[in-house]
């Protein structure tokens, strides 16, 4: 069963207004399906849309936010591992199963990874 994102959800994930998405649709940059009177995008099309916008002139001070699609969820009795496809990037998060369940994280769902790190260590291979 296909999961659809409403135009407002797509706008939030992409970081633009609904009006911008409507304009992009008129220009042929994005194509929405219709469900009743609503514009919707199949969830699996969000990651390619984000990738196509990479390098565009979007402005934001929040450089640690990665919009994407959940591509894998592994749960056990206590913890969950959630993998997001965020354009060219793969983001993996470990969280409590309870948090994962409360967020309703499932494959195909749009999500945003917000990264807050006080230390980042980069090493090179020997």
The CATH topology is given as OB fold (Dihydrolipoamide Acetyltransferase, E2P)
Number of helices: 4
Task: State the order of secondary-structure elements, H for helix, E for strand.
Answer: EHHEEHEEEHE
Oligomer: single chain
Structural class: alpha+beta
Which residues sit in consecutive blocks of at least 5 with pLDDT less than 50? 56-62
Helix content: 25-40%
Strand order of the largest sheet: 6-5-4-7
Shape: globular
- How many discrete domains? 1
How many whole angstroms does the radius of gyration measure?
16 Å
Distance between the termini: 47 Å
Classified by CATH, the class is Mainly Beta
Number of strands: 7
CATH architecture designation: Beta Barrel
Provide the β-strand percentage band. 25-35%
For CATH, the homologous superfamily is named as RNA polymerase II/Efflux pump adaptor protein, barrel-sandwich hybrid domain
Mean pLDDT, all residues:
84
- What kind of sheet is the major sheet? 4 strands, antiparallel
Brief rundown of the structure:
With 126 residues, the chain is an alpha+beta fold. The chain has helices at residues 7-14, 18-27, 46-53, 97-103, and strands spanning 4-6, 33-35, 38-42, 65-75, 79-86, 89-96, 110-114. A hairpin with a 3-residue loop joins strand 4 and strand 5 (79-86).
Protein topology:
Layout: E1 4-6, H1 7-14, H2 18-27, E2 33-35, E3 38-42, H3 46-53, E4 65-75, E5 79-86, E6 89-96, H4 97-103, E7 110-114
Antiparallel strand pairs: 1-3, 2-3, 4-5, 4-7, 5-6
Structure description:
The chain has 126 residues and is an alpha+beta fold. It has a single domain, classed as OB fold (Dihydrolipoamide Acetyltransferase, E2P) (Beta Barrel). The protein is built from four helices and seven strands, in the order βααββαβββαβ. The longest helix has 10 residues, at 18-27. The model is unreliable at 56-62 (pLDDT under 50).
